Amino acid sequence: MAHRYLKVHTKEMMRTNTDRTNSAKTVWPSARTLGLVAGLAVFTSGCLIIPTPHFDSGHARSNFNKRSLRQIEPGVTSREQVLLQFGEPDAVSSDRRKIAYRSEKVVAYWIAAGGYQASGGTLTKDCYLVVEFDERGVVRNRKMSTHWLFPVPVDSVMVTKGWQEESGAAIDKASMISGRGEWFPNVDGFETIAGGLVIGYLGLTPEAIVFRDRTQSGDSEPRWVLPYQGLKDCRLAKFVLARRVVVRTLDNQVHSFSFTGPHGIMQDEKKTRAAYEFIEGKMANRSHVNDAVRGISRK
User: Fold this and answer.
1) DSSP state, 182?
2) Helix (H/G/I), strand (E/B), else coil: 189
3) Strand locations in the chain, DSSP E?
4) pTM of the full predicted structure?
5) Ordered mean pLDDT values, 10 residues apiece, the chain (299 residues)
6) Which numeric CATH code is attached to 164-298?
C-alpha cells in the first residue's frame, strides 16, 4: 500500500501551470518531503502516509522558529531578555548555563489498516532552541536543531561542559597558577594520606587561593577562598615523592593541597612546588609592606 501511495500521490502532489505537458513548469514537492515519504514507504508496508503542511501540534510551545535566532545576539542579549521573549524554558542544564525550548509540528498523518481494524496518528518534527550563557548571564551561543519522527528528551540536547572545563574557564583567567587539584581541609600535611580529600580545581589569584570542588558549577562561588593577607604561615610538606602545600590562617585553620595532572591520577610536583613558592613570595611581600608601615608610623 505504501509503495502504491508513493507512486500515485507523487503525481498528485505535482503542481503544473496551464500546460500539463510542459515538464519545465512542473513544481515538485520538496526533496525533504519526498525523502520522508520514500523512507517511510520502505519501513511501513501496509501504512498510508499523508504529508501535510506543517502546523503546531498543540503539545509544545509555538513561540519560536528559525527567525528567533536573529533575536538572540551572542555577547549582547542577556538571560533576562531571553526569558522575557520566550518564557520559562522547557529544560535547564545542571550547571544552569544552558536552557532549551521545544516546539513540535505535525508533518504528516499515518494510517495503518489490517483486516477490519485500522489505526492512525501523526508524524512530527521537533525543533529545539538551545541558548548558552557565560558567567555574566550574557548569551555565549545559541543554536537550533531538528529531530524528525523520533523526538528526543529535551534535556538530552544540552550537552554541558564537564566540571573541570567549567571551573577552568572561571578560574584560569584570574589565576597565576591553576589546574586540577586535591584539597585537604583541616589536615596538616600528611598526617592523613587521603582523609577529608576533596577533588576539584585550584587557582592562585593575585589576592587569594581559591578552590572549587567538582560538584560545583562554573558560575558558583568557590568553596574555599583564602586571602594571602589572612595567612599566618605556609610550608611544603613531603612524604616520599609526594608534596603538599600547607597553609595556616590567622585564626588557626589549617588546609593542605596539591596540584595533579589533568586526569587526577598523578601529582604535579612541579606545579605544587611553584604554588608554594608563589604563596611564600606573597607572604614575604606582605611582611615587607607591614615593616615599612610600622617604620613610617614610628617616625
Assistant:
1) E
2) coil
3) 47-56, 91-92, 98-114, 117-133, 139-148, 177-185, 198-204, 208-213, 224-227, 231-239, 242-249, 254-259
4) 0.48
5) 38 38 39 51 61 79 80 93 90 81 82 63 81 91 78 59 72 92 93 76 96 73 93 94 95 96 87 96 75 53
6) 2.30.29.30
Contact 67, 133 (CB under 8 A): no
| pLDDT (0 to 100) of residue 288 | 55
Query: Could you tell me which of 131, 138, 136 has the C-alpha nearest to residue 87?
Result: 131
Boundaries of every domain in the chain:
54-105+123-159, 164-298
C-alpha cell at 189: 600535611
Please state, as a whole number, how many other Cβ atoms lie within 10 Å of the Cβ of residue 196: 12
- Residue 138 CA to residue 79 CA, distance in Å, equals 6
Comparing CA positions, the residue from 61, 141, 142 lying closest to residue 101 is: 61
Strands, sheet with 231-239, edge to edge from the N-terminal-most edge strand: 224-227, 208-213, 198-204, 177-185, 254-259, 242-249, 231-239
Taking residue 292's Cβ as centre, other Cβ atoms within 10 Å add up to 10
Helix 31-43 with 2-13: angle, nearest 10 deg: 160
Query: 99 and 77 in contact (C-beta within 8 Å)?
Result: no
Q: Which of 94, 107, 91, 101 is nearest to 69 (CA)?
A: 101
User: Between vectors from CA 41 to CA 39 and to CA 44, what angle results, nearest 5°?
Assistant: 110
234 contacts 284 by C-beta, under 8 angstroms: no
